[in-house]
Queue: 2 jobs
Job 1
Amino acid sequence: MRPTSAIPDFYYFCFAVYEPFLTIIGFIGALMLVFSYPFNLESLPRNNSDPQATHNAQAPWMSDNPPPATLPIATLVSIVQLGHVCALVGVINLCVLTAARKHLHGNLALQEQMVNALLTPLVIGDILHLYITLWALGDQRWEFWNWSPMLWTTIVLGLTLMIPRIAWHFGVGRYVHSRDGVAEKK
């Protein structure tokens, strides 16, 4: 049976529900961490739930260059801005994919082009994000047993979005005009 959508339910769930959920939760977490940092850091448990520990867990620190004793305000602002941009990308996914499903269901070739325009830069970003994360680990990149919970979360959640995006680009389980549009004309 020929697929009837360029964004079937599985892909819609991944990119219009799951990804916005992750990015909005991440943004809320960044806000909670950053706004609690200068004021009541002592009340936070010391199990990687404060911004200092989260920041320091992003990549290994060289013994001759330890992490800063306190995070500069510019770093805290960057954390919030990065969280905001990630949440914005998630909301854009939700809006664009919902509109493509609702308004372009009768024009699958155009629906595919619109979804492709959204997912192509995101899959490039997924690949670069994974590459940069592993690059930052230096010689420790393959020492999985030494990875922090933050690093594992970054890698695993990134792969849960990158793999479906790659599958979408390969046309797995979805309408592909160059393949399915030909069958339509016959």
Note: Residues 44 and 50 are 7 Å apart (CA to CA).
Job 2
Amino acid sequence: MANTAAITSLLGPQPIYVMNSGKRIYPLRLQIKGFVDFSPLLRKCSERLSVPLIQGNAMELTQEKERMPTEFRCGGDISLDSKLTQWPPANKADNPALRNPLLRQERMGCGWLGVIFEWEGVLVEDDPDLEEQAWLVLSQEEGKSDPPGFVRRRIHGMKNEQAISEVLCWSRDPNELKRMAFRKEEIYLSLQGGVYRSCIGSKEFVNALMHHKVPMALVSTRPRKSIETAIGAIGAEGVFSVIVAAEDVHRGEPDPEMFIYAAELLKFIPERCIVFGNSNRTVEAAHNARMKCVAVAGKHPVYELGAADVVVRRLDELSVIDLKNLVDVESGELELEMEIER
């Protein structure tokens, strides 16, 4: 039986047309005896066409992936931290390892915060003149020239060993540094007389923090023994969860080591810690540690401490709500993201 079969194109179901000399178009049809199976031929042609097509698509996708940026980069000279490239921003206070939704929710709320106090000038009144007099007496005992006034102001807030070796340059021998630092502290305590007076409003503020169960840390470049004696003198035993003294750190202000170590002991991230100090060195150290800073002006002019996040005359001017608003991590990140988008 004779069957008529049309040779179809691989690109479509239509038969192949040819044109004769009279410019009339006829479909090309072949007279084939018997049944002819075109599937092997079509399969072979399809494989030859599909392999290069797949390879071409794969190469195009690879090149497109290489052209795609792996992180957000802003043009110009502005450099952004890679953490700000994610949206929405991750809550730095969250800790999935807790495996407790209630604790995680409490940590992510702005009520999860810690407070780090400086001792002198914030909780108890200080007398900078006594500090300078102690250095002058030590210089006379050691046969050194009296340090100028600007040098004495510069070493205020540093550890004694750090001030002697790095600023005064009296010695670099560890034993001599320890001896002179101990002697300087003895001179200061003898001039101070062991009298401690709480700053106005400090007790009320500390009691409010204790009522709201806010963890508190105390940092100072004084020796631990002197700090514990002073705490007992004003009746503040058991108030502070953490005490960081001179023996616990290598450097004092403006190095942020004291505040970072206190935050680690409190088990708080730096963004949820608030530092209370009374000098620009404290503000600088707190900001270097990525912490907020409240400056207690006291007798100093307020405008001198304008670099702090909040400046108050006395601690009882603040409330716990003010502290919560100050450490609201999410709102700060949102404002930064909005500025970047503009």
Note: The longest helix spans residues 39-67.
